[in-house]
Amino acid sequence: MSIEILSRLLLLPPSRIDTGSFNDWKMIEEKIATPLPDDYKHFIEAYGSGYIGNQIIIWNPFSSIPNINFVPLGANKLTDLRKVRVKYKREFNEVYPPYRIFPELGGVLPFGDTVSGDTFFWETIGHPNNWTVLFQENRHDYYEKHSYSLSDFLIRLIKKELPQSILYDEGINKWDFTPIESNDTA
Q: 114 pairs with which residues across the strands?
């Protein structure tokens, strides 16, 4: 299982914050009207809320901190993408972003970001366990497509096995997981 391999590279925190339960996941999935990848659920259950390498945050639907909570952040990001799409169509007669937007079939669904404002998405094609990772760099209209689950993506990122990634330029010197508590600033 990928989360087991990941936990050897990215050590589990001594205590986990905001991990949720089976019934909690059911409520979240009902709220957003889609099942989520098991890999993501295992990540949240194993790690909770926190920073990866002091740069990456995987949004947690159980966090009491609004700016790392998957549900409101995802909804806000999707609203912003729709506004950008309308603007690009009106001003440039172009389709941007170059992907469908969730809840459209196969649309992108955001699930994390970096402290620089870059965004991680799933491309929601097929069964949630088959969704792949997209990374959108904040300063450019650039998307990286990685045909991996969340854990497999993180494993390859940490081991520097991705063919290319702007994330290698983020200045992550140490791959660790730092929990974020509600009294911390995220």
A: 56
Tell me the pairing of strands 119-123 and 108-114. Answer: antiparallel
Check: CB of residue 62 under 8 Å from CB of residue 71: no
Burial class (CB in 10 A: 0-12, 13-18, 19+), 55: middle
- pLDDT (0 to 100) of residue 109: 98
Neighbours of 144 (CB within 10 A): 17
Contact (Cβ atoms closer than 8 angstroms) between residue 124 and residue 88 = no
Does the predicted model carry a pTM greater than 0.85?
yes
Give, rounded to a whole angstrom, the gap between the first and last alpha carbons of the chain.
29
Compute how many other C-beta atoms are within 10 angstroms of the C-beta atom of residue 9.
Answer: 12
